[in-house]
Design a protein that fits this description.
single chain; alpha+beta; Rossmann fold; OB fold (Dihydrolipoamide Acetyltransferase, E2P); eleven-stranded antiparallel beta sheet; binds adenosine-5'-diphosphate; binds magnesium ion
């Protein structure tokens, strides 16, 4: 096991592709760390440098403070599991798992003991004598993970290891991987484009975009205090709404503005976060912080954002519904436990309480004000007033 430091890491592919741009991350010994970002953001490139399959163009990688650039993957003793596992199809699970030990000429007793150990951990004892080609995708991926773990690596690197599996299996393997990592305590880095995977499995994670690190922190920190609108929209169960209010004018007790030409109202509290002289505000709110109201509904007694629009579409999610409201050229999604059926094109009002509002710099998109509420269920109090 080891701590891992990425120090001013850069990777160029040819003269024009700057795939990894000055990335600095410190991963603690035993930590489960996530690299999260959309496709092409440089995650795999970071991981390949970490394991030693690719050389950094600039910067360094240290294990326990010792530079490892000139070391091969074997010397680093890192294990990697890819999205498409590279099992030998004609070999049995046992032969695949023991392969790294046989290459190292481990004794047959050691091999038998280690294979039995990882097979128990991954619950694949019954599969050991089956050929890889005769296993399901989920079983193959378990065997691939077992093969990675069998030689007690310093570092376990996982590149989208469960991305191609079906939803139920993915959810189960998510939990299994987390338990496994906890039980072993092996420093692990998982690459994923799926915020839910990153959120549910890792101790801390880094959000990347276009080769650049956006934010490093726990899932809660990133969810509640996203540094910019990109992170806010990318990270979460549902994407954060980010929309523009223009023509803002101070009206004393509130700020009047427009959303795509439609009149809107913002709470006075946002005034000090608006750029002096700029009349445009870039507003954010998580769908769970937004309410959708009919004309007959009582307006909430607290301050907040309001505007009127029409229902664009509703999506039933079992215990809640996602209602998309179109306000002129912008749309706002609300995640609401409200059981009422809203009709497509029905006129409605959107209300977002002051403490659910984020504000971004309209030029740089950096966060200027965080919502103080963190969970959607805090809306319950306000909802009960409306009902
Ligand atoms: P991710 O894993 O986040 O999808 P990658 O690290 O695979 O991102 O890629 C980051 C960027 O580097 C992309 O623009 C990709 O096209 C480019 N890239 C990756 N590998 C190579 C390569 N071997 N040669 C040229 N460009 C590459
Ligand atoms: Mg990748």
């Amino acid at each position: 096991m080891a701590s891992v430091t990425l120090d001013h890491l850069n990777k160029w592919f040819g003269p024009s592709v700057h795939a990894v741009q000055d990335v600095n991350i410190h991963i603690e010994d035993g930590e489960f760390f996530g690299l999260l970002g959309p496709s092409g953001s440089g995650k795999t490139s970071v991981l390949r440098m970490l394991v030693g399959l690719e050389r950094p163009t600039e910067g360094s990688i240290l294990f326990d403070g010792v530079p490892v650039h000139n070391k091969t993957p074997q010397e680093r003793n890192v294990a990697m599991v890819f999205e498409q596992n590279a099992l030998y199809p004609h070999m049995t699970a046992r032969q695949n798992i023991s392969y790294p030990l046989r290459v190292r000429r481990a004794s047959s007793e050691t091999i038998a003991r280690k294979v039995a150990e990882v097979a128990t951990l991954l619950n694949i004892g019954a599969l050991l004598d089956r050929r890889a080609s005769q296993m399901s995708g989920g079983q193959q991926q378990r065997v691939a993970i077992a093969r990675a773990l069998v030689r007690d690596p310093n570092l376990l690197c996982l590149d989208e290891p469960i991305a191609h599996l079906d939803t139920l299996l993915r959810a189960r393997l998510r939990g299994e991987l987390k338990r496994l990592q906890r039980a072993l305590g092996t420093t692990s880095v998982i690459v994923t484009h799926d915020p839910i995977e990153a959120m549910t499995m890792t101790d801390r994670l880094a959000v990347m975009r276009d080769g650049r690190l956006q934010q490093v922190g726990s899932a809660d920190e990133i969810h509640n205090r996203p540094v910019n609108a990109f992170v806010a929209q990318f990270f979460g169960l549902h994407s954060m709404n980010v929309f523009t209010v223009d023509s803002c004018v101070d009206q004393g007790d509130h700020i009047a503005g427009r959303v795509g030409g439609q009149p809107a109202r913002l709470p006075r509290t946002l005034e000090r976060f608006l750029n002096i002289g700029r009349r445009t505000a870039s507003i954010g709110a998580r769908p769970s912080g937004v309410m959708v109201l009919r004309a007959a509904d009582t307006a909430p007694a607290v301050e907040g954002f309001t505007a009127t629009g029409q229902v664009y579409v509703t999506e039933q999610l079992g215990d809640a519904q996602l209602v998309t409201v179109q306000i002129a050229d912008q749309s706002i999604q609300t995640l609401t436990p409200d059981p009422r059926a809203f009709e497509i094109d029905e006129p409605v009002r959107v209300f977002i309480p002051d403490d659910a509002l984020f504000l971004f710099d309209d030029k740089t998109q950096q966060t200027r004000r965080f919502a103080s509420r963190t969970a959607g269920d805090e809306l319950a109090a306000i909802r009960s007033e409306v009902a």
